[in-house]
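Researcher: Please translate sequence to structure tokens.
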Amino acid sequence: MILNTTHHNPDHKQIIADLVGQPFSLVQKLKMKGIGSKRMIIDEVSPNMQSLMNTVSDINYGSIELRPKGILVRITKGLKSFTWIIPYYQLVIYKTNGSSLHAQGRFVHFRNNKTFKENKKFFDRLLDEKVKYDMQYAMPSQL
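Model: Translation complete:
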């Protein structure tokens, strides 16, 4: 689900909390050594997200925020901001010349450059959180 989060809307806060959980507490954020990525350059998006990208030759930026049950991908288009809400069970990550997040029939590909390399620890943390979430619902191995 993609929301226009340019202006504050209490309904959006509730929708996000229902889908991916409440934000982490300050203590949890400190233990995790941060829950947000640095700003990354968006290289490519799926055709159904093309309307969120700048139409002129401006660079498109995005960042990722961790939540207990998923992630928020924040995309800026000029003065507007959009938030793509992705629960962990829908999230698929590909590492191909950068990183690509896929879910809900959409994708965002982040460029492999200096800012992406600075986010390596963040992506490791993201994968750890996804594995932790998936392990809660893992089927017991059959003997």
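Researcher: Any highlights?
Model: Residues 120-136 form the longest helix (17 residues).
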